[in-house]
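fyi for ur records
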Amino acid sequence: MSKNYFVASVIVFVLVLFGVNMSEIVDASFANATNTPSPARARTGRAPATATNTPRPTRDRTAKPRRTKTPQATSAPNATPEPTADTPNPSQPDASDALTSQLLILNPDHSGVARVTVNIFDLSGALAFSDTFKIQENGAKIVSVPKTLGSDFLGSARVTANRRVQALVLDDNQNGTASDVYQVTGVKTSALTLPYLQHGSAGSQADSAATTPHSMVAIQNISAVETEATFIAYDTNGAEIISRALTLAARASAYLDTQDLFGDTPFLGSARITANQPIAAAELVSWRDTASVRALTTRDEDNRLVVSNLERRTRKDGKLKAWSTLLIRNNGNAATDLVVSYYNAQGKLKGKIVRANVPADALVVLDTRADEFQFLGKNFSGWASVSATDKTPLVVHSLATRGRGKHVSAIGGVGRTRINGRNVCGEVRVTASQKSVLTLLNPRKHAARARIRLYAHAGGAPVAVLERELAPRAQIQITAQDGLPQNFEGIAIVGADQELSRPLVATVLTQTLHGKRASSTSGYLCR
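which gave:
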């Protein structure tokens, strides 16, 4: 993979200022390797993002990779099935077509206009750019690295506001064939988890460099003092494989390339990052499309989680055209048993998958292409409930793969205790070049009525109000054919019932189009 593929990482944490409005701070790592954004994104009026050449961060070379014996389990986690000619392994985007990151800041706070300040820092943590602007209530603004910073800029951004703002990170390449989006977190922490880390084909086959899955991890020091951080990668059985120590100056960022970490050795597993100061991290996995995920915090852990937008779809000739991969990590200190229950869109339980005695730090990989998922049928669309049989904390990410492997996106799971009655979906688009699908899931055993309020990014003007009924444990999808207005670029605020008493899970998948054909897919969990 070209060294020009990078990922932005963002963290939001709330500061309560007594006697004045609530304020939020956003820290984001920016990476831009081209001075022209994707044509699909450019139609939205975003400014081009460019920057200057910046040296790679200094790494502590004294940290040596460590290997430990693999612990035994009564039922080892399954690896992703080896792709065949009929279900191709997604390959990287063209190495000459680099990604550009942008930050979408939105103001869903009903208190009024938000006054926002953005400070952009280079890799060393030095201030490179600052700007202050206003965002109307329910409106949004795109922030790009300014042209004055030149090309190939790497760094981070800190955003402060007098309202409860939110943010999404947008990654696009120039021709729209690789894109993804993920939402910021609201937790300040010094311990993070990446449930999914892959380099190469994890031993299933010897891929060429042009088709090898490849990961880039961005680690950001969000504090105003130097921090010592440690990155540790674990295999699927929970064994520590490699450790890397980093020293990050105040506001500085570092990027870890799996090629540097693993070389020609394929790897599939997870990672933990710890530090003595608050940090943020995210990962970009490049195939033919890209999938970006933010590192998860303890608030993302639960012993019962829900994941929506799962698929197993076949063509008329029997070949799989869409599938989903659950990546479930045991974040506890001891082994546990996992039960994963799959429901269709109508709320009917289709079947369960059980994994016994999953070790601490182990990763369970459940790919709906595997033979054990025949119970889902040929055209499954639905969701899953992931549970530990005890109080063991779990974290979950899901990879949604479409177009027989050409389009990949990532969506996080949400703990049962963290499901909200109000969710904000910051980027919903129905344009000539982008088509969003808003998915609503009611995981409870009682019916719910969802109310979706749509607002334009520009100025926050109200556009439409939609209402939908959800049966118990049912999932529905809302598209342009089902009510999303044409030529819409904006925010969807999803509420369940008048009193917000019915918690719902909301997610957005957006396809970028070339003509009538999809060229990439992005997805995120609304919060």
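The two ends are 32 Å apart (CA to CA). thats all i got for now
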